[in-house]
Structure formats: structure tokens, C-alpha cells
Amino acid sequence: MSKPPISETDLHAYVDAQLPEGRWAEVAEHLAAHPEEAERVQAYRSQKNALRELFSPLLDEALPATLRQLAEAPPAAVDPKKGPILARWSLQRIAAGIVIAMLGGVAGWLGHGQYQAVDRLVQFTPLPRQAAVAHVVYSPDVKRPVEVTADQEDQLVKWLSKRLGTPVRPPQLGALGYELIGGRLLPGNSGPVAQFMYQDASGQRLTLYVTTENATNRDTGFRFAREGQVNVFYWIDGKFGYALSASIDKGELARVATAVYDQLEHK
After folding, report:
1. Please, which pLDDT band fits residue 228 given cuts at 50, 70 and 90?
2. pLDDT reading at 243 higher than 70
3. In 214-233, which positions are buried (b, 16+ CB within 10 angstroms) versus exposed (e)?
4. What DSSP character marks residue 188?
5. Is 183 strand, coil or helix?
6. Confidence band for 100, pLDDT divided at 50, 70 and 90
7. CATH architecture classification, 130-265
8. Phi-psi region for residue 185, left (φ > 0), alpha (ψ -120 to 50) or beta?
9. Is pLDDT of 73 > 70?
């Protein structure tokens, strides 16, 4: 009997160490014979590890006492006159259970190689972490790191500008050794955001995250954050928020971020 083909589900289960022993050997043999897929699996593993590092502090936090109380068992005795109160209490308990399940779901998702739920996760994170998560998810991608490539830059600019409702254009970083790969549209807190991706001759990638959701944010300083293994320089300029992310030295990233800032300031 012929062996079943190696599916995408098998590859993710391989990354997550969830394959039966016999199937594990088949997938390992398949990857040894297909270097491109082996590289993709390594990218999945890198994404998984980086996301876990980004969010492990959140997952280690204790559940708030109010949620724990709501999740406790109800009293054994019930006063008929307080039925409505018990009903409301039960609804609260159900809501608490949903929250607990959601937290558990985040933990489970972080241990998985797939990333379809990024749009739900980033809604609860500040600008530098949103940018770092997007960088971790897409920069290792081998086959499709961007939606529209740099050879269609005019189309990319028109598309992203239309979706964000304002003109956006990627800075030119060739003089610093980073060439534009392309860009993509991502979900933000309340609307779309843009991500531009660059790469140097060694294959090192950095991403510029652009959002227009900062109209009420007056914190215009040029700031630095470290999210796991990702360094991020970010700043606010009017309604725009920018975050430049990469797993490179802070000084090197600062040099690039300064160039980006200068270009955007004089756009």
C-alpha cells in the first residue's frame, strides 16, 4: 500500500512534535528530499519560537481574582426569591469561562505553526508589539513574504493608499543596503495597516509597519522597544504611527530608522 502524501497539516504537526513516530520518519525523509519545504518548515519553527518568546510573559501572568471567583462552582442552596440573581451569576460564570478559554486558546495558538489568527491577537497589543508580531510572522516566509512585490511598486502604493485612506509610500533604503521586497495589508486595532518589507544582500529582513490609528496619540517621541528577539524603533507623526522591526543590532536598526524618519518627515 502506498504511503499517504505529505500534507501541510503534516508539516505543522511535525513542527509541533505532534506526529506519530512512524509518520514523523516519513515527514523527515520527505524534507530531506525537498530542501525548499525543509526551509519552509524551519521558517515555521522560527515563527513559533519567536511568538512564544514575545508572548510568554503574558501567558505567565496570573488570572485575575475576579475571573477565578466567577469560575468557581455555584452555591449548593438556591433561594427561589433570588432566582434572577443566580441566573445573572450563571451568565457571569459562563462569560468567565469564555475568557479563560480564550486565554487558553492564545496559548495553544502560540504553540502552533499556523498564523491565521494574527488579526485577532494584535488587537490587544500596542504599536511596537503589533509590529514585532507582524515581523515575526511574515519575515521568515520563504514563498510569500509579501502580497505585492517591489516590481509592482506603483500598484502596491495605490492599493495600500486606497485601503488606508491616505497616501503611503515605502522609503528608499538602497543606500543603506536594504532593498524593498514588497508589502502587504494587515488588520490593525480598528482598521487596515500596511507593512513594507526590505532585505539586504545577506537575506536579513526588516519591516516597516504603518498605521493611521494614532489621531489621539500625542506621544511623538522616537522610541525603542525590544520584543523577544526583535528590536523595534517606533514613533508617531500626526495620525501616522511607524514601527521599524528587525532581529539586528540596535545600533544598526537605529541607523536605518533615522533614515526612514528623515525621508518620511520630508515626504
Report:
1. confident
2. yes
3. beeeeeeeeeebebbebbbb
4. -
5. strand
6. very low
7. 2-Layer Sandwich (3.30)
8. beta
9. no
Which residues have CB under 8 Å from 260's CB, separation 6+?
171, 173, 208, 242, 244
Other residues' Cβ atoms within 10 Å of the Cβ of residue 154? 8
Alpha helices in the chain (DSSP H): 8-15, 21-33, 35-60, 65-70, 83-110, 118-121, 127-138, 153-164, 250-265
Helix (H, G, I), strand (E, B) or coil at 95: helix
195 neighbors 186 (Cβ within 8 angstroms): yes
Measured CA to CA, the distance from residue 83 to residue 64 in angstroms comes to: 27
Ranges for all domains in the chain classified under CATH 3.30.200.100? 130-265
Task: Give, rounded to a whole angstrom, the gap between the first and last alpha carbons of the chain.
Answer: 64
Nearest to 264 by CA among 228, 234, 227: 234
- Nearest-5° angle of CA 203, CA 204, CA 206? 130
Q: How many CB atoms lie within 10 A of CB 189?
A: 15
